Amino acid sequence: MVQRTTLNMADIARQAGVSIASVSRALSGAPGVSPETRKHIRSLAHDLGYTVSPDAARLARGTSGRVAVVTPNLSHWFYSAMLDGIVTALHEVETDVLLYEVKHERERTRFFAELPARRQVDALVLIALPISDEERQRLDKMEVAVVMAGGVLGDHPHVRVDDVAIADQAASHLLVAGHERIGLIGSGGTWVLPYAAPAGREQGYRRAMDRWGVPVREDLVVRPVWGTGGGAEGMAQLLCLRRPPTAVVAFSDEVAFGALLTLRRAGVGVPERISVVGIDDHELAEAFDLTTVRQPVTEQGVRAGELVRQVLTGREPEESQVELPCRLVLRGTTGAPRPT
Amino acid sequence: MVQRTTLNMADIARQAGVSIASVSRALSGAPGVSPETRKHIRSLAHDLGYTVSPDAARLARGTSGRVAVVTPNLSHWFYSAMLDGIVTALHEVETDVLLYEVKHERERTRFFAELPARRQVDALVLIALPISDEERQRLDKMEVAVVMAGGVLGDHPHVRVDDVAIADQAASHLLVAGHERIGLIGSGGTWVLPYAAPAGREQGYRRAMDRWGVPVREDLVVRPVWGTGGGAEGMAQLLCLRRPPTAVVAFSDEVAFGALLTLRRAGVGVPERISVVGIDDHELAEAFDLTTVRQPVTEQGVRAGELVRQVLTGREPEESQVELPCRLVLRGTTGAPRPT
DNA sequence: GTGCAGGACGCAAGCGCTTACTATGAACTG
DNA sequence: CAGTTCATAGTAAGCGCTTGCGTCCTGCAC
Q1: According to the model, what pLDDT value does residue B4 have?
Q2: Does the distance separating the beta carbons of A55 and B64 come in below 8 Å?
Q3: Ranges for the HTH lacI-type domain (chains A, B) (predicted)?
Q4: Which residue among B81, B98, B254 places its CB closest to the CB of A75?
Q5: Contact A308, A145 (CB under 8 A)
């Protein structure tokens, strides 16, 4: 026997001198109560500090007004900026967010295995999380709506940027400036399931080079592990070459930061000797004075949140596969190649 | 009438040829069912992909196994690293996390006003969120457990670092190296309710100076707005002085990053001409080669998560006011003052 | 053989809501 | 003035679970 501890809908009903049903209707906005009654009940509820129990409501109604957001990582800028957008958008429509972090392969497997337990949510937002076919099938079989933020997942609604185009822009910028020996610090991909971005971005780099008729020198393409450390290492690798590149495209800003660190330590002038362009426009890119191609991360999150809302509202969203534009942000780490 | 869409406990009961009560007991681990029956029911439930509805369980039982985490900001490193720790710790004990972001004063007010609605959670974790007295009282009156992560809140359990000590360490490092003209880039505090860190850190700076008998020159103390931009501006301000400092303590690493940018642009050698020390050990501090005082952020989150668990388990935590140690991380932005 | 303890299980009363259905009376219509 | 209509309000049947209590049965002591 659990001690009754909070106010009840019945308490409100009693005090207002109406039935529980009326209270429910008044509070939920459903029709069937006169404006005055509604107002009276509402103000009473407010004064008493009463609010409808979401759990009971969910049980009775069948939907929870709750959404789960699943992210592979919380402490990295990209994911948290995305999350920020999602939460902001969802907050506006009074939708609660349940947060799940699945860092490792194992956790992911487990998460999807336990997914049925999560039927406490109406929808699932995946932040750039790659999943296996089997997991996708499980998802499809469930009655939750699924939205992908920062990627693609079958026919589910999604929001993302064009990774190929984004890297193409980065490389093109260097090509336009006259660079030819352009390196790429890509990503080693230590994941079991591949994230979409690395492959797409490498492809974009190659596409741009192709278009300009500049052959890709494979020794200028390195793939260290992801992150600042990897960037530093990758850059070091490139510096060891007989003829280092005059410019590099970094797979992401974080990688570029690492590359810049190596260059600074090596006493290599940026952009005099080597130009560096990143991808993402990390919140600290400006502090590094890094030229980069900006992808609107928080906005992607917001859009994803809106997609969720639309899907939940029932009406099929006008446009459920959103692709946001990216654009070059010129700062101080790129310039023309030094005349030989 | 909502269409029954998922499996029911009744479905399982029927198939297993037992009563609903037995299924509930078998699945929840409660006593009262024979080991064989339990096993049978469990495997059946597993095969059918059935899981107990958390909502119904909560309704019937009165507790939700859900915790709300409230943060003023999601996209900044500090908060998301903290969140990361909290989520990780809570994930281990199967506690779901509801996430709330309250960016502005107004949202905060609203959040606390609506708090009763949140009785869907068993506990509340506040990430370094300053709240008003009135709000605190509301909190105290509610039956939720409250844990503060990265700060103090009345007698509630909390995890944090000593901001005074942390800034003291930063300044001392410079003093030991022989600096005397040490600037402070603090924080302007545009918040209505003051965050604890700024004041504490400024105090720590002053304490260290005092201890070394070095008078604080007020013109060397600037308080721009928080963040990288503020840091850049604050540093610029200091550079304008007739005699700029030979070293600066930045209120946080992000501020230090901005300061470094200004110095680089101004062509001022770091640390030859000016040393810079930050506070926090931001995930990118290493990329900036920034000397800083490290505070264990994610770990604070983890500890906060553990506090929640303890509080929820009922047993009063052995130690509910945790203060984690910080330590200087030497990197390349500090050195001895240049001999005059 | 009788009595009793105790384990395994079913019954049924909620938990706090939503909502289909029904009742009531006021406002209209012809 | 009877006959309708319609807005408002109440009744009560669940939603899917937990749990106190009662029942039954087996095993054992006397």
Answers
A1: 45
A2: yes
A3: 7-61
A4: B81
A5: yes
